[in-house]
Amino acid sequence: MASSSSSSGRSSSSSSSSSKSKWRYDVFLSFRGEDTRNTFTDHLYWALDRGNIKTFRDDEELPRGEEISPQLLKAIEGSRIAIIVFSKTYADSKWCLDELVKIMECEKEKGQKVFPIFYHVEPSEVRNQTGIYGEAFNNHERNADGEKKKKIEEWKAALRNAGKLSGFPLQDGSESNFIEEIIGEIRRLIPKLVHVGENIVGIDENLTAVKLLIDAHSNEVSMVGIYGIGGIGKTTIAKVIYNDMLDQFKRHSFLENVRERSKDDRDLLQLQEELLCDIQMVKNLKLRNVHDGTEMIKSECHIEKVLIVLDDVDCPKKLKFLAPNSEWFHQGSIIIVTTRNKRCLDVHKAYLSYEAKGLVYDQAKELFSWNAFQQHHPKANYMDLCNRILYYAKGHPLTLVVLGSFLFQRDEDEWESTLYKLKTTPLEDTQKVLRISYDGLDDTCKKLFLDIACFFNGCDENFVTRILEGCKFHPKIGLRILDERCLISISVGLIRMHDLLQEMGWAIVREKHPENPGKWSRLWQYEDITSVLTNNMGTKNIEGIFLNESKPIRLSAEAFKKMN
User: Fold this and answer.
1) Is residue 23 exposed (0-12), middle (13-18) or buried (19+ Cβ within 10 Å)?
2) Whole-angstrom Cα Rg for the chain
3) Catalytic residue (choose from 60, 61, 67, 99)
4) Is 60 a catalytic residue?
5) What's residue 550's pLDDT?
6) What residues contact residue 110 under an 8 Å CB cut-off, 6+ apart?
C-alpha cells in the first residue's frame, strides 16, 4: 500500500494531486464595474480571498499600461471556475459580453465550471434578452453593420447558454448570507487534494475496512483511528479516503505530521490555528492559548459537518486539544486519525480502531518489481533473489519501495551483498534497513539527503535549489538521484521525505555525538540551537543551522567563532 516511483505502464488506483494543475486561478470574476465593482463584487472578491480561493478580477491583477484583452483572455483560460455577475447594465458593455463569449467557449472546450449570479435581474431576462437586457440589445443592434450583427448573435448565444445554467439568484435578502452560500459551493468545486502518489499498490483491502467503520456511523459522527508501524501505509490510506470524500464537505482539513509539528503547547496552538483556518475558510487566525483553541474548535465544528484528518498523532494529549470525542462535531462529520501509538485511540473511546495491514505476497511482488525492474513482475533470472527480498520485507511497503529503488539496475552480486547485510538487520529496526540506500549514495548526495531531512522537508523545490546553489552546491542532479532512489518524492513543486527516512537522517547527524549538539553537522531544533549558541558550544563540524521560530535568542559574535 505504497506509491512506487516509476510511472511506466501503470494506472493510478486512487485520487492524486501529483500532477501540476492546469489552472492558474481558482475563480475568474466577470462583472460590470459601474454596477458592482465597489459593492457586491468587492465583497464577494474579498470573501473569496479570505477563503484562500485564488481569484482574478481585472482591476486587481493587470499591471497598468498592458494590453488588457490578451491578458484577460489568458486569465479566463487559466481559471477553473468563472463567476458571472449578471447585473442590470451587464449587457450594456461590449467588453463584458466579449468576456462572456470567451467564458462559454472555455466551458465547452476546457471543462471550466461556470456559475451565473443573477444580481437583481431575472434569469429569463438574461436567457431570452428581455426587459433591461432586451433594451441593451436594441441599442447594440441600432446601426449595426454585418460584422457587428455577427458578434451580436455570438453574444445572444452566450447569454442563452449562461442563462440556462444553475446559478445564484439574488433579489432580496442578506447579501452576506448569499455570499457565504457562494463560497461554500465554490469550495466544494475546488478540491484541495492532498498528495498521494501516482500509483498505489495493495490498498483496496485497507480502504474497504476503514470505509466500513466510517459507514457504521454515517448518520452520526464517525471517528476512526488507523494504527500500525511506521511505513505500513497509514497516511496513504487516510489521504485516499480524504481525497475521495472531499467533495461531500464544505469544511475540511488535513493536518500532516502532527507528531513532528507539536513538540510543545505553542506548536499545538499553531496546529489549532491551522485547523480553524481550514474549517472557517480564512487565511489567518490567531489564538491566545490552546484552551481558547479548544473552545473555538468545538464551536466551529458544531455548526456544520466537517472532514478532518489528523496524521501521525503520537500521544493522547494532542487529541484532547484537537478532536477528543464526538460531542465536538456536527452530525455527519468524519474524523480520521493515524498513529503508531494505539493508546491514543484507546484513551479516547470515541474512536473505532483499525490496524493497517501489510501487503500480501502478490502485492508485495508487484510493488517491489515496479521499483526494482520498472515493470510489474521480476526478471526471470532475478526471481530467486526477489523472493528472498520479499521474504525479508514481510509486506512492509516502505521497505519494499526503498530496497527496490536501491537495487534497480544493479547486478546479481550487488543483490547478494545487500541480502547479506539484511541478514544481520532485523526488520523491526527499519531505520537500519533503510540506511542501506543512504550508504549507497556518494558524499554529495548524502549531504543533500541530510539537508532535506533537517531543513527542507516539505519545502518548495525552487526555493531549496536557490539556497543550495547559493552555497555553491549543484543540487538538481542530487535531487533527481534521491527521487529515483525513493528517498524523497518531488510532486507539485514540493520536496517530501517520509517521516521514517527523516528520522533516519536525524539519527545519522546525531550518531557520533548524541549528547553534544555542538558537534553535529546540522542544527534544526530550537532547544539545540539555543543551547549551542548561548553557551558558545559551536564547533567546526556545524555546516548549517535552520531556525524557524519567532522566539528571540540573545547572541554574540563569539557564538559563531569556532564554526566552519
Assistant:
1) middle
2) 28
3) 99
4) no
5) 65
6) 77
